[in-house]
Structure formats: C-alpha cells, structure tokens
Amino acid sequence: MKDFADTLRAFEIASENLERIQQDASFWNDDPDALRRLDRLALVNQQAFFVLLFALFDAKLNTHSSALIKRMRSQTEWRDRRAWDLLDDKVRNMQLMQRVALLTDKGGDVYKRIKELYDIRNRIAHGTLLTEEIDVAEIAREIQLFAAGLNEAS
Amino acid sequence: MAYLYIDDDEPEKPLPSREEAEAEIADWKRRIDALYDEIVGWLPPGEGYEVDRSRLLPRHENMQKILELPGYEIPLLRIRRDGRDILMFQPDARWVLFTRGRVKLYVGTIRAGDRLLAKEADAEGPEWTYWTTGSWQTGGKPWGRECLLDLLREVG
C-alpha cells in the first residue's frame, strides 16, 4: 500500500505548510479576507486528496473485481459460471458500488461505510461546496483498510 | 462544475436548521472551554508554564455561510515557557466529517500537523483523540494527560 502512504505523506507536507501560513496569519491578525482565502485553500487541499485517495481505492477495486470475475468465469461447470459470464471482463462499465458489492456483503457495515465515503467523493466531484471539513488522515486509514480487505475477498 | 464521472447518486443529508447550527456552535464553545480547563489542570505545577487564553480567533465555517449565519470567535490556548510558545491549541472547525470538531495543535516550531478530533455524539470511546503527522496508519490515540506530558517533554 505504498501508493496510499505516499499520497498521505504528500497531503501532510502540503497541509503542514498551509497550516504554518494560517498560523502566522491568524496569530498576527491578518485581514479577514486573507484568513478566509487560506481557509478555502485548506478545504481545497483536503478535498483534492480525499478524491485522490478514493481513486486509489477505485483502482484496487477494479483489479480485484476483475480477478474475481475472471476466476469465476473459468469454472468448468456452466451452472457455476453462468451468472458470472453475464458480467464479461468490462468491470469499468459497472457502477462503483456494484463492484463493491461483488467483494463485500451488500447488507454489511463495510458496504454501507464505503457507500457513505463514495457519496462524499461524489459531492466533491459535483463541485458542490462541502459543508464540512475533512480529516484526510483519519479517512485515508479507513480507505486503506477497505482496499486491503478487497484483496482477501477476491 | 462536475469534473468526474458520477454514478449512483444519493440525496444529500439535510442541513441543520439555523437554530440547530447556532446551538451547535454554543456547545462547541463550551466543549472547547472544558478541554482547555482540563489541559491547564494537567500542567505540572512549578515548572514555569504560563497559560494565555486571551487571544480570540475569528471563524466563519462553511456550514454557517451556507445557512447565512454570522461567524463566531473562539479562544486559542497558548502554553508558554521562558517567553516562547511551546504548545498552541487552535479550534479549527466544529463541522468536520465524522467528528464533532477539530482542534489544531502547534507543537512549538517542531510540527504544525497535529490535531485533536472530537468523537461523534453517538460514538463510543474517548471524547477527544490525538492525531500526529505520520501516524495515520496506526490511527489516533485517546487524548489524555500522558499525551500532553509527552508533548511538553518533546518541546523541552
């Protein structure tokens, strides 16, 4: 999971530098417009890295769902593989949550949580202003654990 | 502006009412005061630590902007020794996803990425967890007196 670690490290470096600038600005009582601008940049940074982390998860999901479909389609018994044959190899044509459902119980807590994170990713992708800040490190940890879990499920 | 492929849209969670948001900010200020009281109470006496809670930080969170509510002011907690800031707690936002607020923590000139996260109202566990740079894979740890003393030792 080096890609997750590198992405999070890049976020931490960017975030820490931004926070130093914010600290100086708030400490020296810079004008409110400058403070608001820095707040906005911090939010953009959080959103950008959240989307990037989710994209890493999506890539793992593609790899593992493709592997699962390929394995199930290679079964000798037609009765075992007939439903899998309908899916073909084009997992990219499947909606993300359908791919998640291949690898985790649709009624389970993991599925529900991934759906929650995916909805946030979509709100960012829509360009709608999030009402809330994001603690990227906390969510990165969770997404990485889900990605690791996909490997076992495939 | 939509710049990524979207599927499987869900309706967004309803926003709090203006009254609910105002009550949340009042509660946030109370919780910050209680946090500061606790931290100040943990400082080892007779070791030259000075506390300054006089500086107010203006905040205007996105939630407030969307609800057309005014911003608010909230105090910083500065712990000083020998005329220099060694720890500074800066409440960052009440509305942080999956939490009930975040406080940034500046560790002297050593680090700027530490923070305390408040647990969600219905979550189990300690009221605050402490996160530091580079610790994301191990997760946060319960915030308590030992965490504070470790930080004080670190800044010297």
Secondary structure topology:
The complex is a heterodimer of chains A (154) and B (156).
Chain A: H1 2-27, H2 32-73, H3 78-85, H4 96-103, H5 109-125, H6 136-153
Helix pairs in contact in A: 1-2, 1-6, 2-4, 2-5, 2-6
Chain B: H1 18-42, E1 50-52, E2 56-59, H2 62-66, E3 72-75, E4 77-81, E5 84-93, E6 102-107, E7 111-118, E8 128-131, E9 141-142, H3 145-155
Antiparallel strand pairs in B: 1-4, 2-3, 4-5, 5-6, 6-7, 7-8, 8-9
Task: Please give a structural write-up.
- Chain A has 6 helices and no strands.
- With 154 residues, chain A is an all-alpha fold.
- In chain A, helix 2 packs across helix 4 (96-103) and helix 2 packs parallel to helix 6.
- The longest helix of chain A is centred in the middle third of the chain and has 42 residues, at 32-73.
- Chain A is elongated.
- With 156 residues, chain B is α+β, with helices and mostly antiparallel strands.
- Chain B contains 3 helices and 9 strands.
- Chain B has helices at 18-42, 62-66, 145-155; strands at residues 50-52, 56-59, 72-75, 77-81, 84-93, 102-107, 111-118, 128-131, 141-142.
- In chain B, strand 5 (84-93) and strand 6 (102-107) form a beta hairpin.
- Chain A binds chain B through residues 5, 8-9, 12, 15-17, 19-20, 23, 26-27, 32, 35-36, 43, 51, 95-97, 115, 118-120, 122-123, 125-127, 129-135, 137-141, 144, and chain B through 1-10, 12, 15, 55, 57-58, 60, 62-63, 66, 76, 88, 90, 92-93, 95-99, 102, 104, 106, 111-113, 115, 117, 131, 133-137, 139-140.
Helix content of chain B: 25-40%
- Tell me what portion of residues of chain A adopts beta-strand conformation: under 5%
- Return Rg of chain A in Å: 20 Å
Low-confidence stretches of chain B: 1-8
Shape of chain A: elongated
Instruction: Give the overall average pLDDT of chain B.
Output: 89
Query: What count of helical segments of chain B does DSSP give?
Result: 3
Helix and strand run of chain A = HHHHHH
Unreliable sequence segments of chain A: none
| Cα end-to-end separation of chain B | 49 Å
Shape descriptor of chain B reads globular
* Helix/sheet category of chain A: mainly alpha
Number of contiguous helices of chain A: 6
Distance separating the two termini of chain A: 17 Å
Cα Rg of chain B: 18 Å
Order of helices and strands of chain B: HEEHEEEEEEEH
Strand element count of chain B: 9
For the largest interface, the chains and their residue counts are: A-B, 42 and 45 residues
Q: What's the story with the biggest beta sheet of chain B?
A: 7 strands, antiparallel
- What is the number of beta strands of chain A? 0
